[in-house]
Amino acid sequence: MTSAYANSVLDLLRLLVVPVFAWAAYTDVRTRRIPNKVWPPLFLGGLVLFALTVQRALEPGVPFASNALPAAVVSLGVVAPVAYLFWLFGGFGGADAKALLVLSLLFPIYPVYEVAGVVLPLPGNENPLGSFAFTILTNTVLAGVLYPLALSVRNAVNGEFALPMFLGKRVDAASVDDRYGTLMGRNDGMTAGSLDLDALRMYLRWRGESLDAVRSRADELRDPGTLPANPNDPTDGNLDAVAGTDDPDGGDSTDGAGTTDDETADTAEADAPVADGESAAETAVNGTDGDDAFEDAWGAEAFLEDIDGDAYGTSPESLRDGLDVLAASERVWVSPGIPFVVPMFVGLVLALTVGDLVTAGISLL
Fold first, then answer.
1. From 77, 149, 210, 221, which residue has the greatest number of CB atoms within 10 Å?
2. Which pLDDT does position 185 carry in this prediction?
3. Would you kindly state where each structural domain of the chain is located, as residue ranges?
């Protein structure tokens, strides 16, 4: 498409989504939640713009019709299903999937803008499929790769060399209830205890106990007989949530991320040895020191049955393992996750200006 079609009404309307995604990215970083009320108007606007785009492409004499229709098919037939499948298999949060679905409707073809005589996106940087939504997706993936790279560099600088260094950071076990993300395991990481930290907060609020209590009174709290007769509202696990209150907007969770921790050098802290050579953490995690004494250690199964849900995919076993790890370890690995709407916003802005980063990179070779 040439600059003769720049700044059309449809393309200018598409730009309204940019400030919305900027706000969503900010909200994603701050709370790992995006209110549900954001999506209905965007879906409706996307459907209208998609229909008008297809209608325009079908008009006689439109020179880009042969490219527009296949691009629209790619947007709905490839990008939209990718969003759904990633959500289905746990790769995306609900908000991430909805955001990508919205973009597949709003940007089925490449828009054209002319600013101060410069045509944007830069001509020649289109992907062969002609789908602008696909360009946003690939740009998002490239932008998202920067986060684990930065995380691994940070861990290397701090002397943390282990497999989880590309996915997480090692923090004080006592601090994890003030973070977003996923507990990955003990000092060496990824051995046991994977637990969504939102689910951990839900459990603690439901039970009316603190993480400090779990760590200091583990033998007592493993006994399901200590569960409260009238459990509290578990909330949704958000850091800002208050038990007993409802969030009027609901909100989809996104991939969790941690709060900033002190940039101090980490030193490995050995757990006290036991007779068979295992550390205390390993003993607790392997169920040889407490869990086997109770049919429902920690009341994990009772918790999940009472809330009538899975608490972000949490099973009774993963909740027990996570609590055992936190009770027995001083340092643990936590994966902050990637607030995916952030790289999606970056990918959108890059797509609207530079175009397709993969195509641009290949052209430079």
1. 221
2. 73
3. 3-145+340-364, 168-335
